[in-house]
Amino acid sequence: MILRVAERVVRSALIGYAAGSVWLRYKGPSWLDRIARRDPKARDLSAIHQKNADQIYRTATRLRGLLIKMCQVIGTRSDVFPPAYVKTLSQAHDRLPPREFEEIRCVVEEDLGKPLDAVFSEFETRPVAAASLAQVHRARLLDGREVAVKVQYPDIEHIVKTDLSSVRRICRIYERFDPQPMELLPLLDEMNQHLALELDFCREVESGDRIRKLFEDNPAVVIPEFYKEWCTGRVITMEFVSGIKVTDIEALDEAGIDHRRVVQGLMGIYTRKIMAFGFFQADPHPGNIFIQPGPRFVLVDFGLAKELPEGFGLGLFELMFSMMTFNDQSMIRAFDELGFETKTGDKSTYVEIARRMIDRSESRRFEGEFTEGMTDELFEAIRENPIVQVPIDFVLVARAFALLSGIAHTLGHRANVLESMAPGATQLRS
Predict the structure, then answer these.
(1) Ramachandran class of 148: left when φ > 0, alpha when ψ lies in -120 to 50, beta otherwise
(2) Residue 234, SS3?
């Protein structure tokens, strides 16, 4: 108990120090500008943004837990945060140092109610992957089945609660004494909702089963089987399925896998999930997508699977079609259907945003691909015009399509959403 209290104090102090440093880097120059009677808006803040992003990233990788998840959220919120934050903090998606194996053993044995060797004939002590909330180990059940075991860190709920309390307190103080157009507490509430989903391993198993059922008519989509008797709220035991990381060009070439077919297949899968099913993995990145010869697509990690609102698919389709035809009224209607709002009620801003996106496309015409540049331009326009409120569902979908575009370009192709919607291939959810 004493150690836990001491840990809470230390974590809160380190978080407070980082927050104070970030605040002072912004306020110091503004005070100087005021004294010198200079326009603070004329100051270039890019260097300060980068220093602050670097400090936040260092603090997060040291303390892990909630702070890593916060970095991952910021790294996807180009509509709110400057590019330096997005680029630096998105690194939190990469591989993290693993926990000691004895910590992992304790969680597995406690949750399964048996010693490790009573369930597994083999259990590799070195993980194949480590993330912010859990890590994955390769193992073998007593009946010979090869499995991957995802184990939640033993103290992660306590760490999340401690960090959440500290960050929330800092946000309240910041917004009370130094109000800004960017509201931090709603973002924190959003992140808290996502964490609750990711910490519920039983829900992750259900989401994976649901996506497998949605694609049961497509043998090219592989969702590992979950072994329910060895799954709990903190442990997931699933079929071990091997594959090539989707961006590993050399390995794909060695396996004779056609890059174009990989891109086409991925676009078909994600378009069907988003446009037809209204249920998709809201935290996709190359570490969650593996390729087998065929190609076949192995999808893993359903902790943040997301249900989209009714009509979202049709709204997104209408937005794409209106951007292709430069139909202003259709653009406004599409943004409304997708859940965008304006604080003033003036919806003409939607047209300006859409046209800026189109201008960032390679041909200055929208031809069906949501590139990272177009997505960044969308969020840049919204940062410059904060009267527009963006629904989180659109942010997650836009980042997913931008990710697919990045993967496609890495493989030498384009990720065209409209081309992946062959006639009769999907039925839009209305």
Answers:
(1) beta
(2) coil
Query: What's the whole-model pTM score?
Result: 0.74
Structure confidence by residue, pLDDT tens digits, 126-177:
999 887 788 999 999 999 999 999 999 988 877 777 777 777 777 666 666 5
Catalytic (active-site) positions = 283
Whole-number Cα distances in Å, 59 to 12, 92, 236, 327, 378: 12, 12, 29, 47, 30
Paired tokens of 286? 């190359």
CA-nearest of 383, 381, 389 to 342 is 389
> Which structure tokens are listed for 65?
């837990």
DSSP 142-167: TTS-EEEEEEE-TTHHHHHHHHHHHH
Half-sphere exposure of 15 (CA within 13 A, CB side): 26
Q: Helix, strand, or coil here: 360? A: helix
The yes/no answer on whether domain 95-155+176-241 falls in CATH 3.30.200.20 is yes
Phi, psi of 136 (to 5 degrees): -115, 130
List of long-range contacts for 65-68, beta carbons under 8 Å, 24+ apart: 65/132, 65/156, 65/159, 65/160, 65/163, 66/159, 66/160, 66/163, 66/164, 66/167, 66/195, 67/15, 67/163, 68/92, 68/96, 68/132
Domain ranges for the chain, please list them. 2-93, 95-155+176-241, 242-430
For 254-268, what is the mean pLDDT? 93
Closest CA to 337 of 362, 364, 309: 309
Q: How far apart are CA 318 and CA 321, in angstroms?
A: 5
Strand (E) or helix (H) holding 83 = helix 83-89
* Mean pLDDT computed over 90-116: 86
For the CA atoms of 11, 169, 80, 277, what is the dihedral angle to 10 degrees?
A: 80
pLDDT (0 to 100) of residue 107: 96
Residue 42, judged by CB atoms within 10 A of its CB (0-12, 13-18, 19+), counts as exposed
What is the rounded average pLDDT of the residues 110-121? 96
Under the banding of pLDDT at 50, 70 and 90, the label for residue 387 is low
What are the tens digits of pLDDT across the range 162-220?
Answer: 777 777 777 666 666 555 544 555 556 666 666 777 888 999 999 999 999 999 999 99
